[in-house]
Structure formats: structure tokens, C-alpha cells
Predict the structure.
Amino acid sequence: MTDISHQKLIFFTGKGGVGKSILSAAKASFLRQQGHSVLHVEMGSSQFLKTLYNADIQQSPTLIQDNLYASSFNTTDCIKEFIQFYLKSDKIASVFTDSSVVQNMINSAPGLSDLTLLGKITSGIVKIGPPLNFDHLVIDSYSTGHFKALIKAGLSMSESFQSGPIGDQSRSMINVLKKKGSVEFNLVGLPEQLAFEEVKDLQEFISKNLDMDSTILLNKTVTNNLNLSELPKAYTNNTDQKEFIEKLKSINFWQKKYFDTFSAQNIEWTPAKNLQDLVQKILIYFKETKESL
Amino acid sequence: MNPIYSSDKENQLPQKEKVVLFVGNGGVGKTTLATLFAIQSARKNLKTLLLTIDPSKRLSSLLGLQAESGKIVQIEEPRLNGKLFATCVVPEIEFKNFMSEHIKDVEVFEKLKENILYKQFSSTIGESQDFTSLYKMASLINNNDYDLIVLDTPPAINSKNFFESAVNIHKLLDNKVFSTFLKINSYSESKIMNFIKLAAYRSISLLGRVAGKEFAKALFDFFSVVQIIESEVKKVSLQSDSILKSSQSKIYLVSDLSHSIEQETKVLLEYFEQKNYQLDLIFINRVMALHSKVAKYPESEPYQKEASKQLNLIIDLFREVESSQNLLLNHIKDNTNKKPPLIKVPEFKKPPTSIESLVEIAESLSLDDNTERVSL
């Protein structure tokens, strides 16, 4: 059995469509190659892992490759596991969670679904519920807005309920998220204005609410070596090339802005045949970074 | 079921949509496309309202949205002829409006406002966006003040929650066992009722054990107040469902051509088919402006060698991206059973920096399903 006292939670978040899922897959694959046991987790029902691994991914870990497992955490199963753990009885837990009242309540009760997912992710470290015996959990998390709501749900529940399991659970979740060295927040950006603003905003949010640093990954960069001023005006001013050059200028501008503002990790734009191919091509960028793990 | 639109025959022009919903995954550009679409309809002299959810700071300031109050603003741009209005959903305010409109007892309402879960529901929690935007949409449509309402929806990961939010709350409140939970101290002669009560007692103590008494109490307090307005929740639930199924509503899916988006789009399409919601159009957004088609490889001689080498690599990259985009486009086409028309929206040359530039972009695009379509 793996000793999980050093288990790491590695979150990937950022603006929708920036490549969170792909980068989380590359990170999971990278860590596996480094000899760690990894659980690649997706939150909610995005079904990305189903496509990526071409397998039916449910709540309980599915073996993908040696030391690499995948799970799709959903609210209903998380609540069931939580109740089973507390009541020590599968039967009562099923009676409880299978009832339509409870089903509808889970769907309508404020913040409950976000809270249970957060609870499941941190459950290994706080040793509640079924063991998650992995060195690392790589979490393909929600995009910016929903990610913030998730953290806020934990924070406000932990402040609102001073006693009882919900309050205790929320506090321990938040404590885990604040544990330096155990949690890594990866914020994924693109060389464009909106993604830049979201990354900046998110970094401040995490720092303010959890007192944690985050890692910025700048996805889809276009070669930094290109000096546009070296190209003769005859080429760049040509109507055919003009838009293309404008596009490159804008990418260059935002890349520079990222590297001036953060110590961002550069991930170059790479065309790929399919998802698996893309994951393998992105892997090298994680290899280049000094693993602090 | 109540008709959602005015029964006034003059208003029921066939084929004339009154509501257009933009759905799709996060980050594909739903809000921007919805805005451009609304601009186009205002340009056609339709009094148009754009209802956005969680707009970016940039778009808010471009449109002059009042992100704090959620008030409807008129967009001041000469070419729009005063026909475009915009607002955003502020869940906290909408939920409070909804509650205060329907809970007549001031004391009950004050008690509710103190409830921990109410505070959460109305401010921080993502789920509240769903119900409140449905409510706002339904009430705006009932007002009949606009020729067209363009609605931006929460990201697809929550789309199902969005469409089902009112139904879920209503299902819960409508449930006999649950309402017995809430009236557990009431007296009853009926054996069956007493039996249900016993079950309710057990469930409450169970909930108390797993979630804590404090939480269980807050939850029941919350729902017992919400129960007072059960019929109103039901109304919103029925209204929103009929709005979505109505022939006067259009649902436009926004997607893009990244690898990961394909599966998510497929899931959403299956969901629409299963729910019998008609998907009218698919926008494939940010199809790279295919600069590579026109951009020539630089001839190496007259240029500095290094720059020319780098540029060649970039053109290669863009051309490869273009061909993989075409592959994905075919996949999406093959995986769509009912095959609504697809419209490719090119990447903007420059991001809009003013309302004037937004209008210019809107003028340059064909977003109307009556105009030119992409043949696949």
C-alpha cells in the first residue's frame, strides 16, 4: 500500500477552453513516467477522460496504464461514500441516497454538490472515506468562475457551521487546500487578453483566500525567437501577410506580458493528430521544469 | 400549461423567434457571439434585449452594463437606433426579488435572509445562477417589452443544471415525503401520515448524524420557507420548459475546434435530443482566420536567415492547425444526428475595444441562419 502522507493534490484551472484538460493529462502522464502512482481526476460530467483514455471512467479508479488511474468524481457517488463512511452501513446509505427526495435535495441544496466534490478530493489526505492510495491526484478542475464558487463554498460552510460534521469537514478541506507542499494550483493561460486577465484575477483570489502561490502555465505560445522587426517591410506590409503578421504581433505582445508579470511556464503550440498525440508532445514541457515534488 | 407568450394573435407570428439562447462550453465565446447577434438584430430594427450571465469585465465595460444592480441599460451607439438593451443576471438581487415578490410575510422573509444557506444560495453558489437566470428570462419574456431576447447561458458543464434547476427545486418541494419532513410537528389522525412521519423522523436524525444538527436545521429552515412559494417555483419551472420547447425560441450551440471540445459538444447534443429541445444552429467559433492560406513563406534570400526560418515554422504550424480544424469539423458534422446548419465564425482580426468596433464586427459577420451558410 502506498503511503499517502505525502500525497499531493495538483489542480488545473483557468479560463474555459485554454487547455486545462490536456495539460492535466500531460502532467499525470509525466508523473507516472517519473515513477509515481497517479490518479487523474475530472470533476463533474465533462467526460473528457472517457474520450482521452477511451474507457468508461466512473467514480472508482480505472486502471489506464501501470501506476496511472482515472476517475470522474460526481456528487451522488461522493455523498454516498461519505454517508457510508459515517454510518458504517452500505444498506442504510443506499436507502438514504437512492431515495428521490435525497436525490432532489442534493440537486437543489445550496452548495452541497460543490462541497462534496471538494470533500472527496481532500479525503485521502484527511483519511476520511475510502482510501485513495496514490502519490498524486491530478485534478482537471472547473474553469475560473466555478472554481472560485467551489472554494467559496468550502470557505463559507467552514465559517457558517461552527459545529457538526459539515463544519468540521469544510474546515479540514480548507486546511488541506492551504497546506503548502501538499497542494499545487496550476493556472492555465493563453497569449491573449481575456485569458491573461483571468489568470491574474485567479492568482490573486487563491493568494487572498488560501494564502497559496500558484503556478502559471502559458499554453499555445508561438516561438519566442521570432523578431518581427527583422522581417522586411515589403513582406510585413503586403496585404496578404498583414493580418497574419498582426496576429503574430498580438501573440508576441501577450506572451511578453505573461513572462513580465509571472514566472510562467512556456508551453509551445503544437499541432497534433489526436488527444493522445498532443499529450505526448506536451509532456516535454513538464520534463524541462525542475520537479519540486 | 399556461402559454408563455401573449395569447394576442398578432404577436404569434409563425417562424418569428422571440428568444434566442446561446449554449455551449465555457470559453468558446458564447457571450461575445450573443452580443454580436443582438447587435445585428437591433440593426434590423428589432427592439432587442441582451441578457448575459457573468460577463467578462471587458464586455461589461464595453456595453456599460451595471454589474452591481443588474439594471437594464440602453446601448448608446448611433447605428443601433436605440434598439439595443442589455442587462446581466445578478443572482443575489434576482433571488431576493423573487423571494420578496412572493413571500408576503415580512417576518418570514427576514428570517429567511438570516438563514446561512440562503445567504450562500443568493450570493456565492454557482447553482443559484441557474434558477435566477431562468426566472429573469421568464419574467422578461412575460413583460413582452422586446421583439427579441438574446440569452447567454452558463457554461455547458452546468447546462443540464441550468435547464433543470427549476424542475429540480420543484420536484423536491412537490414530494409528499419531503413536505412531511417540513411539517413534522403537525398533528395527524391518518395512519399513513404517521407512518410517513416516522420515516421522516428517521431520515432527519440520519441527516443530523451525517451532516450535523446545525446543518440539518439550516437546510430544513431554508426549504420550509422556500416551500411557501412552491407554486411560484413550479410556475418558473413550467414556463422555462415551455420557453425552451416553443417554436418561437431558438437554441444556438456555440463550439470551437479544439480537440477536447468535441466530446463535450456531443454530450450536449445528445442531451438536447433526449429532452426534445430543438437545436437550430451550430456556430463553430474562432475558426482560425486561416492566415496560412494567404501568408506566403518568405523567400529566404532577402530576409535575415533566422527570422525567415522561424516564420517558416510558424506558417507550418498554422497550416497544420488549419488541417486539423478541418478534420474536427468533419467529426462534428458526422456526429450530429439531426444536423442543424453549421456556421463558421472566423477569428476576429482584432479584439473589440469599443462598442463601435463591436458593431463593426457584427456588420462583417453572417450570423443569421437565413444568410449564407457553410456547406460541408
In short: The beta strands of chain A are 8-14, 38-43, 62-65, 68-73, 136-140, 183-189, 214-221, 265-268.
